[in-house]
């Protein structure tokens, strides 16, 4: 008996596998009684039985979809393009400034410009560190704030949130997928800066052995590995802000308001962090240990501040992640 | 109307209540029973609480009181078990403008953890075919007209065979041809055994498509039951088109026609509920009285008459 000949009542118990959303041509009344949610007995044997039961892996479809949607947005690509342009600008500026071959900024000790900028002319790899140090205080977190702030609120204001929820995406699952996509964006944004800086650095300046902050010299390959580790550390620094942005995003139905609030909070926190009189609260601000990534350029690596930073980001993720969950799962979706 | 037994009721609300933060009662003690296999029209003026009810039924907002059951299971607790078997179009379509129609459907299908990814592409293709969007499937949804977006929303509701379709104003924004297509699609789906819960502000649409209807006003349910019974509750009308409207109204009154009203050259009045006069007699009397009749006829009571009788006001007046 082929599938097509099965009477309607045997094909409707769980119909997701069919690929035929109803057969419209023929008006047909099923004799099926009200069903209790149990799959109808299946005579086709094992393979069909297996197809009826949803696989736990199917739940990952939403995560993949979320990643695709995040990175297909024009806005995401524009943010990444801006981030990629920063190392190019810095690289060109350094090149123009030192056109005669001399070191930039009075031998690198002038105290002007981002960290490591004086080393760039000797070793293009330092443009990676310079670019990350230049974008971490504002450009990178602003981009993350935009993406995180818009994540839930943007779907709410577009009305797509209600369709995701009746799909049904499940509120907890949707929030997890959103947070995953934001974290992926943190990493993608950081890697964009790093890769762009490496390309520009290799193009405009020589590459070679790396002199670490502690004075030791390591081969280029080791330096590249450290650059990758630094990019990951920078991306991890953004986790706290990502969770904060996600929480803000669950508070409102306006994507613009959520983005503005998140970026506003970032600026406020950065200002608070710059006021020496507020020393007491500084260890609790999420950007407090952001520059700890430079400790990866020591030999041996200076872990204290790096781990401090990770703990702080983890704490922010836990607190604001829970707050976002509590808010989102209990909320009326009225748009 | 006798409520059907619980197992044959796909949508059931008991004392469903929602009060918004401002203190305004949006839905007030709503009792609703939608029988399996029916095409159920949900009627009411704007602001009467229809959409709030639909949102509570689908678990988007938490009821303030009472209970809602969908396919026999409590909402919103059983949302993840029940909603894969329910297709919904809520308060207009909302596609991602930067995604193509096809990608929109792929995303919504991926959001359903019980939808098989191996048949996803095929099911999306068929849903698009069914609503006539195949040709525009690869166009970005922001380039769609409202009617095309509406079709895309319907396609999303048809991604999988559903036991229940909740369609909120499904013909909004469609041209007459599109409306007809949607109506025939709804009939077709109902023919396949899908229960359709349809909210609309177009009374004649409900009358054409629905087997059952419920009428809401100011957050309360006024009535529910089979459409034929609801319409039968209202009285038939007699209409005369004539230049001699005053004389015509007088003659109609003599034959027991109540409250004749004159609009232009048309006189209409309600036939008395018991022992209505023979229209032939009335027509002869009109002619005897020297009334020049251009057109004459009885009109079956419509749902609109029933609605006016229930609410005492026109349908388009917000509560």
Short précis:
The complex is a heterodimer of chains A (335) and B (319). In chain A, 58% of the residues lie in helices and 1% in strands. With 335 residues, chain A is mostly helical.
Which helices and strands appear, and what pairs or packs with what?
The complex is a heterodimer of chains A (335) and B (319).
Chain A: H1 8-11, H2 46-52, H3 61-72, H4 74-97, H5 126-135, H6 139-158, H7 160-166, H8 171-204, E1 210-211, E2 217-218, H9 220-237, H10 239-251, H11 255-273, H12 303-329
Antiparallel strand pairs in A: 1-2
Helix pairs in contact in A: 3-8, 4-5, 4-6, 4-8, 5-8, 6-8, 6-10, 6-11, 8-9, 8-10, 10-11, 10-12
Chain B: E1 9-19, E2 25-35, E3 39-43, H1 50-57, E4 65-70, E5 73-75, H2 79-82, E6 86-89, H3 101-110, H4 120-130, H5 146-157, E7 164-168, H6 176-191, E8 195-200, H7 203-209, E9 212-217, E10 220-226, H8 227-233, E11 237-241, H9 245-254, E12 258-263, E13 266-270, H10 279-288, E14 295-299, H11 303-311
Helix pairs in contact in B: 3-4, 4-5, 8-11
